Each structure stands twice: as structure tokens, then as C-alpha cells.
Amino acid sequence: MRLRPLSGFLLLLAFLSLGVPPAAAQSPPISAQGAVLCPPVAPLDRPLNCAPLGAAAYVDQWGAQGVTFPLTPPPAIPIAPDWLSPPPDSLPYYAYVQADKARMYRRTSDGLDTERPAKTYPPGLVYVSYDWVTYSGHQRIYRVAPEANLWMQGKDLLPVTPSAFRGVQLTAPPPRPFGWSVANRVQPRKAPGLGQETWPYLLKRYTLVQVYDQREADELTWYMIGPNLWVEQRWVGLVFPREEPPEGVTTSRWIEINLFEQTLAAYEGNRLVFATLVSTGSPPFWTRPGLFAIYEKHATTDMRGSFMSDRSDYYMLEDVPWTMYFDEARALHGAYWHDVFGYPTSHGCVNLTIADAHWLFEWAQLGDQVYVWDPSGKTPTDPSLYGSGGF
Questions:
Q1: Residue 70 to residues 9, 26, 64, 73, 173, Cα–Cα distance (Å)
Q2: 12 with 67: CB under 8 angstroms?
Q3: What's the rounded mean pLDDT across residues 358-383?
């Protein structure tokens, strides 16, 4: 049987159409003799003196757990696609330098001057930005430095497409934890536990979900994201809305980085205004837990360096967009070179999609505090384990 992917709340509604029996549903202790059955709507919308049996009992049973029909989405709106735009002073496209010692050349009326390279990139993880693609003879070439008329050969570059994922702005206080699926083709189960029956549907990556219940089974945490719809904790990145700032936070605007969930939440006082997935530092380059403040902002900046003494891990990233430094060389910034948000992958920085980084850059101010923490306690806090950080 081919499994069909469904996204968002359409997925949950499809499950309901399968006729799922309510878990441990019990008929109310009333006499239904001669009574009209209540329609399967909220109690306040029902006629008087109807019998809450059958489908209505199903609605009531789930309503006690906060599950309404139709399902109510969280009070969240994805930020506009316009936020994906690059900074005005940077080149609009990006490419991975896939050749060691790739070179830049000046272009003349006869083509690229390959006899006299203007620059040679060292081996390592190198990404460049460009603004124009054309042909020189039968070879595709990319303009990487317009002012200096410098170009690179197409065989040396692999263009990349930044992630289109976008976080959400909150329009009201969310009533429960919410977040996103972080893996593709997740098959939910009908009850918590690895041995439980699965649904014949797949949860697509970056699907927005809400958590209605939490259980422990098989030494794993399971979340109920819809009626009889359970997923493992590791397949979702969640935001747990706060009612007040953490101890020590004194600024009116502040940002929370949850290292365990790989999520970011932005607050104005006690009000959650924005949330998204991030990618923080992976061992041994963790993002350091603590309370920090944004001390420097750049609409675009180059990042380069290495962590090993032999420089075997050299990196050079051009035009990193919407960068805000908060802890030495650790920064919040857009990452155009990967699309694994919801998992630790960085060298200490907090990676966001370009759209999310852009929104956050325009919202945040110098001095705004950044609270980084790991509720699991797995991220070390020993200062000796942390350098200055990196991308």
C-alpha cells in the first residue's frame, strides 16, 4: 500500500474521516429513550434536550482534552515570503565552491583571462555569492565580484537554493505547546509506543503541529498531535510558551533559544510574538547556554576561519545575511547553505532560514537579551569547553 503524504491540519482531518473510535469513550449516564441525538458539534452549539451519544460523545470525549472539531489551528501566521529577500548590499544568489583551489578571473572581450587568476580559494568549506550567470564560449560563468569584474567558471560552482521554510508570528497567546515536524515521512502511531499500530499517512517535514497530551512509553517521550495521533519527541521541534521571562531577563524584547527542541521564540514582555526552528551548535562546538545580549548587527558579513591547528576545517562563507552577534563570535544569522533546521549542525552560531533571520533582524535591537538553555541538561556548561564560536 502506498503511503500518502498529507500536511498540516488536513492530515488530522483525514484521520478523523477514517472513523476513529474514541479512546475509552463512555456513554453519559442519561436516558436516551425518545431523545434526539445531539449533532457532533460543540456543546454550546447543540439544541436543548438532545442526547450526547454516538458522534456527539466522541466530540465531548476529545473536547475534554482540548481537541475541538473542526480542529482549531494555533494562533500563528507564517511570515510573508517577502522576508526571504537578501540584504540590499549583498549579491542575491549563492553557490558552493566544489573544486579545491578554485580561481576567480577577470573577464575581457576575449573571455576569461585564465592565464592570470585574480584570486585562488584555499581548500575547505567555501560558499560564494554571485549576481549574474552567462556564457563564455561554451562554458557557463558566474560573476562573483561585479565592481572588480571577477568571474568564476561554472565547473567550480554548485548553485544552492536557500530553505523556503518560514517561522510564524503569533496573533494571540497559544493555548498549548506547538511546533513543527523536523523529519520527512514520519508515520504517526495510534497510541504511544513503538509497537503500536501506525496510520497509513505520512507527516511531512515542517508541518505545523500542536501538542494535546504527552506520555512516556518504551523509554521515549510521545506527543499527541491530534485524536489518537502520536509521534516521538525526536520527530518534532516544539515551543513551550512562557508566561513570564526567565530569571535575569530585564529587556522588553528578548529571545529564547531552546537547544533541546532546536527552536527560537521571540517575546515582547510576556507576549510571544514569533517562533521558528533553528540549527544550533553540534558537539564539540555547542552553542553556549547562558544569558547574553545582542552587541553587534550586520545586514551582511563574510565569515571565515578554522578550528583545527592545521586549518583542515577551513571555512569561508560570503554574504552571510542578517547577522546579530550575542556571545563572542556566536551569532544569530541566516544560513543559505543547508536546510536541516530543527537539528544541531553549526559551529556555535544559531542558524535560521534567511526569511526568519531577516524578520528577527528587523525586530531585534542592540542590547536585547538572548536566553540560551537546554532543558534536557545535556549541553555542557563548563566554560573551558567553549572557544569563541563560529558559523
A1: 10, 21, 15, 9, 20
A2: no
A3: 97
